Each structure stands twice: as C-alpha cells, then as structure tokens.
C-alpha cells in the first residue's frame, strides 16, 4: 500500500514523518508498514536524548550510524518512525518521546491506545 492510501491514527491520510534523515520501514519518509515489518515502525516520534539512551540500553542503538542498513544514526530532535512496541515500552518507563499524530500509521493502534498517543502529540 502506498502512502497516498495509508491512514493515520486519526483516520485521515498519512502524512510524512521525515525526509532528512529519510525514515520509515521503506525509507520513503512515511511510517508505513507491511506484515514483514515485524517491529511495526508506525509511530512518528521526535526522538529525545532520554529516549535514545533508553532504546540503546534496551538493545536498540539508534545513535550509531549503520550505513550498511541505510541508517544514518539519530540525534535528539530528529523525527523517526519507531516501533510501536518500543515506544509503548518507553512510555511505561516514563521515557517516551513526543509524536506527530498525523504521521503515525493507523496500525500503531494495534499496540498503543490513541488516548495515550494524544498525550504525547507535538503541537
């Protein structure tokens, strides 16, 4: 499914998350997903140092560039499509970053309640 037909968590057209760095499971700037995306990279987060450190401590280093995977490495303030389960885990630990709701894919709602996401929406 292309991004033009994908829906966000609010039920409207999915908006881009970020083009620099190029994010998304498909590296097209959108938090789209397919069944093969086991991590469900559906939440568009504006990563914070606290979240990046938390994620690294949990075994997912988002800071170090990995060019072999097309991954530039992130710094605080970057927008990135993160795994819904990791975001929820960080939320429960008090370390969740803010989100761009219009850029979060509707599939994120399989993991995270919309009311929780709304508490973290970037205004």
Note down, in words, how this protein is organized:
The protein is globular. It has a two-stranded antiparallel sheet. Helix content is 20%, strand content 9%. The mean pLDDT is 94. It starts with 40 loop residues before the first strand and ends with a helix. The chain has a single domain, classed as Protein of unknown function DUF2237 (Phenylalanyl-tRNA Synthetase, Chain B, domain 1). It is of the alpha+beta class.
Task: Please tag this protein with its features.
Phenylalanyl-tRNA Synthetase, Chain B, domain 1, 2 strands, globular
Element layout with pairings:
Layout: E1 41-46, H1 49-57, E2 79-83, H2 84-92, H3 114-119
Antiparallel strand pairs: 1-2
Q: What's this, in brief?
A:
This protein is an alpha+beta fold. The protein has 3 helices and 2 strands. It has one domain: Phenylalanyl-tRNA Synthetase, Chain B, domain 1 (2-Layer Sandwich), CATH 3.30.56.
Structurally, how many domains make up the residues? Answer: 1
Q: What's the architecture, going by CATH?
A: 2-Layer Sandwich
Contiguous helical run count: 3
Spatial order of strands in the largest sheet:
1-2
CATH superfamily: Protein of unknown function DUF2237
Q: Approximately what portion of the residues adopt beta-strand conformation?
A: 5-15%
Radius of gyration: 13 Å
- What fold name stands as the CATH topology? Phenylalanyl-tRNA Synthetase, Chain B, domain 1
**Structural class given helices, strands, pairing?**
alpha+beta
The main sheet comes to: 2 strands, antiparallel
Count the E strands. 2
Q: Which CATH class is shown?
A: Alpha Beta
